[in-house]
Amino acid sequence: MAMLNNKNTEQLQELVTCAICLEYYKDPRILPCSHTFCLKCIQQLAVTDKPVCPFRDNTTINQNDINQLPINRTAQDMVEFMMNFNPSLNTNCNSLCDNCNEKPGMNWCEKCAFHYCESCTKSVHSVKALQSHTIVPASEKTHSFCLEHSDEKFKYWCTQCHLLVCRDCLLFKHKYHTFLSLKDAAMDAKGNLEKKTQEINEIKRNLTQFSTTTKNAIRQQQQKTIEERNNIEHIFKTLQRMLEERKCILIKELEDDEIHSIKILNRQQINIDQHLNLTTVQELCVRQILNSDDPIQILKFKSTLSHNYSDFIEKYRKIDEGCIIMRDIFKRNDKDLEDLQDMISKLGSITSKAHVVKKDGVASISQFLDISKPDGNTQMTQKSLNYARGYKFSLKNSFTLRAIHVQSNYKGLYIGFIVNDAGFIIHRETANSTDSTMKWLMIPLEGDIKNNYTVLVWTPYGDGSYAYKDGDNKFRAIDHDCAVQSKSFTNAVQADIGSRPDITDTSVSIDMVLDI
User: Fold this and answer.
1) So where are the chain's domains?
2) Is the pTM of this model over 0.70?
């Protein structure tokens, strides 16, 4: 048996070696960044000044969370596999020298079947008769001697117990068991290993392809998130711009009115100042008359003062009446503010669509919309009624239909219809059932469903019934985007793409689930 010392083994050893202690993983744990290290190595990192992942990916190690880190069971299983395949890889399992029982037995003599330390190897095999013995490192020991019969080598393979056995084993413990020679058993094992190698290579190819697809899915997910974030930013920047424009309009209107009112007040202030000056003049003139003793001068001043005084009083009265200006008030309606807040809270929404990531690509997963009536007793339509039955849709947003599912025990042909908002059939597909038991049947019916479209199903012949619940003729809500109303039409035998059936209300709400 070849030991684990070739190039492939070196690669395997690298996979199961901790990058910190450079030894095989002991209780391997996975950090949030997906890197794996021994638990003790992670604990030692956590007590350093900067407890981060050694690979410098900015992952911080929190000492309180270390015990909660998940175990890397794949790495753990790989270490156990290597140890079981070649125990000599475990540095703790070296046997002591079988000669001195003091030093580790680093060498193995195929002929003596003993472990020897370096000194005993030289001293024991210095005898000429023993110099022909084959000495190999303990790590390359072939374990060729039977554990129960130490003088006998393994020569056979027990196909019943799946064990290596010697001649004495076949004579006693495995007396009635089937066996093969080591050569034949090894050839058979090689054949099986070659098949497993092919399977492993196929799995490796698939995983490599899956890895590429997953990386692409990560990149697409990140790009999609960036795209939708940009859309959100655009919507709210637009909203902010509209609000800013409205604010500027209101402020401009306020400032224009302020300028107009200030002009009026400035004119009024000029008139007041002028009249104050005139009042001073009038006051001086009156005092001058009062201080004069000349009758002629007094009468002249009185005549002039009387003539000007009337104009003076008239202007004063106009000034005293005041001036009309506009004082603007920003009317804040709390109800409008609440309505606007409610509109903003409903502005946009995040909707998720499930996708499956497989090795050959990423595909969206259909969602199922159950439009069956949720309450009431389930009944069966009468077999004699040959109606096309279904639902009319009231939608906020259109969707794409892939198939419809109905619960029925009709054995025969099923026909599905999509009728547009103008009442014309635009899609028609069929499905066949050979089972007369009550079950859900899928009818592949693909097409866009828009507001006021109708989806119906019809069976032209065959025995059986639909499951339904009795309801009313009103629209009932399925979710916040969709409401349905039960509909039916007769003479479905003439219904085809382009025809316009006479669709009427009905209280028969058949069980129907849409694949969208």
Assistant:
1) 7-140, 366-515
2) no
Query: Minimal CA–CA distance to 486: which of 508, 455, 503?
Result: 508
What residue ranges in 18-134 does DSSP mark as E strands? 28-30, 36-38, 107-109, 114-116
State how far the alpha carbon of 469 is from the alpha carbons of 373, 393, 417, 512, in Å: 6, 18, 21, 11
Look up residue 25 and give its two tokens: 């993983």
Structure tokens at 31: 């950090």
Alpha carbons 385 and 390: distance in angstroms, whole number: 14
Which residue has better confidence, 142 or 510? 510
Taking the CB of residue 476, how many other CB atoms lie within 10 A of it? 16
Task: Give the C-alpha separation, 400 to 369, whole Å.
Answer: 12
Q: Rounded to 10 degrees, what is the CA torsion of 244, 249, 254, 259?
A: 120
Burial tier of 103 (Cβ tally within 10 Å: 0-12, 13-18, 19+) = middle
Spell out the residues 6+ positions from residue 86 whose beta carbon is closer than 8 angstroms to its own: 3, 4, 139
Q: What is the pLDDT of residues 254-311, one digit of tens each?
A: 888 888 888 888 888 888 888 888 788 777 777 777 777 777 777 777 666 666 777 7
Query: What class is the 366-515 domain?
Result: mainly beta
How far apart are the C-alpha atoms of 126 and 407, rounded to whole Å?
Answer: 90
- Total residue length of the chain: 516
Mutual orientation of helices 295-320 and 182-291 as an angle, nearest 10°? 160
d(CA 427, CA 415): 10
CATH class of 7-140: alpha beta
Distance CA 447, CA 257 (A): 59
Gap between the Cα atoms of 446 and 106, Å rounded: 74
